[in-house]
Amino acid sequence: MNVVRVEASRAYEVKIGRGLLETIGGEAAKITGGQALVVSDETVAPLYLAKAVGSLRQAGLTVSSVSVPAGEASKSPEYYVNLLNILAAKRLTRSDAVIALGGGVVGDLAGFAAATYLRGIPVIQIPTTLLAMVDSSVGGKTAIDLPAGKNLVGAFHQPSLVLCDPDVLTTLPEDVFRDGCAEVIKTAVLFDRDLFDHLRADGTDFDREEVISRCVAHKRDVVARDEFDTGERQLLNLGHTVGHAVEACSHFTVSHGKAVAIGTAIMARAFSADADEIVSVLRAFGLPTETEFTPDELANAALADKKRSGDTLALVVPERIGKPRIAKIPVGELPTVIKAGF
Q: Residue 297, Cα to own-chain centre: how many angstroms?
């Protein structure tokens, strides 16, 4: 097992190792005073909810659970308010905890509910997808979507604990696993030439525990220096401005990981001296690098992006593998930038 300690407004550990799901009861008992609400989705719950609830109850906790439909549509005001009402009905207190058992949607929804119920109660993240393990479960970003765009309502709320069990990845559909690979590749492009070379050599047979730990450590370092996303942390948005636009234009029929892959490829072709290598690895992992939407369509969708500030937009430019920078560009130049990456 590897342990990555995150030093933020709340210090916590990210534990990465096989079999950790079975330890959730003992781990949660160190954090919560006696009650926990497990939030999952209708895909993950049949696989892992009973095991998690059983472990929690064996540790002496009072446990209830709720499952939401799988997919981005559950990150909505409706499901968020419903979750708050469940927390209130169960009378959870600030000494209790929400446990997010699922992928990024569950983590965001449950995390935002925990951030705002009683002005903040503990949340334990148990990510069940590769994408959530290496990205969304760490760093404290929580949010729901609005019709105008993704993640427009949210809060920074660091988890009290993150448990990443690579064993749960064995039940992931191959397509969903590859979505997570897009975030792994993104991390390597940003910070780690050695990791990039490892991915290029091993493909999807990479060492799960080691690669997850390495990605989490990189994110830990960035979050420690810029917890509230005012500077360096914006680097983690490589591919996301265009990626979120692809998601919006497709009405979320294109998954987040594939959209980020497309966005990363477009930014690489537009700016990077290592563009051919980056695009080649994305394709080797079975990820898309082009989109049917036009630069103007993508730019228009990006206008709702939360990274926009007035008439400028922060874009992450991967000049070389391991050497990114943040470029502030006028919103009006975005179609030209995207076109350059086509």
A: 25
Instruction: Report the CATH number that the domain containing residue 196 is assigned in CATH.
Output: 1.20.1090.10
Which pLDDT value is given to residue 302?
Answer: 87
Residue 229 token pair: 């996303």
Which of 110, 138, 171 is the last residue in one of the domains? 171
Q: In this structure, are 185 and 106 located in the same domain?
A: no
Q: What is the pLDDT of residue 312?
A: 86
CATH of the domain at 67: 3.40.50.1970
Per run of 10 residues, the mean pLDDT along the chain (length 342 residues) is 95 97 95 94 98 97 97 96 98 97 97 98 98 96 92 96 97 94 97 96 94 97 93 94 94 94 98 97 97 94 70 92 94 92 94
Query: For position 265, what pLDDT does the model report?
Result: 98
- 3-state secondary structure string across the chain: CEEEEECCCCCEEEEECCCHHHHHHHHHHCCCCCEEEEEEECCCHHHHHHHHHHHHHHCCCEEEEEEECCCHHHCCHHHHHHHHHHHHHCCCCCCCEEEEEECHHHHHHHHHHHHHHHHCCCEEEEECCHHHHHHHCCCCEEEEEECCEEEEEEEECCCCEEEECHHHHHHCCHHHHHHHHHHHHHHHHHHCHHHHHHHHHHHHHCCHHHHHHHHHHHHHHHHHHCCCCCCHHHHHHCCHHHHHHHHHHCCCCCCHHHHHHHHHHHHHHHHCCCHHHHHHHHHHCCCCCCCCCCHHHHHHHHCCCCCEECCEEEEEEEEECCEEEEEEEEHHHHHHHHHHCC
